Fold:
Amino acid sequence: MEAQIYLTKAENSLKAAQLCFEAGLYDDAVSRAYYCVLRAAIALLVKFGHFPETKRTHNWVRALLPREFVKRKKLLPKELIANFTELQNERDIADYEPKLISKKSADRIMSKSEKIDHAAREIISRVQKKFPKVKVKGVIDWINADAAIEFITPEDNGFEISEFTAPLQIKFFEKEGIDIRVLPLEEIDGHHNN
Structure:
């Protein structure tokens, strides 16, 4: 749900950017275009289990997005991350520098922001189609295994990944860019070893 809220905010920022551009308010168009991208990036990170640091959101996204989605998962091309950095720099000029953004620069920034927003939405859409309501419930004990990951399906039926099937299933999740975090049993559902 949180990811969808950030996507809505991104969409609203893009609409505001377009209105500002049409009105000749190019600095404001660039600023809103940057926030479209920032919010789409946050939605993508949240969808994959990363939650924003409230006081340093811009730096958090700038550091985590390339690490998670370019280097690790290989779901975004490097150019889009370079575009994100450029957008942030242009937004800083638009908001804080004694310089006006030209129509040509604003048009270029708007185009790049739309591409990044689209890429984030595409990845989230693919994940939602494959796993519409699946949530990780926790790690549970399992016969002949140290632990198993239990998921909650839309019908609330749990299914497990055991040590025997995990390699195959985890490769599938990695291919789809889904993070699986295995926690110690002591941290799940109040389970304590004696």
About this structure: The two ends are 38 Å apart (CA to CA). The domain at 2-129 is CATH 1.20.120.330 (Four Helix Bundle (Hemerythrin (Met), subunit A)). The chain has two domains: 2-129, 135-187. The beta strands are 135-142, 145-152, 158-161.
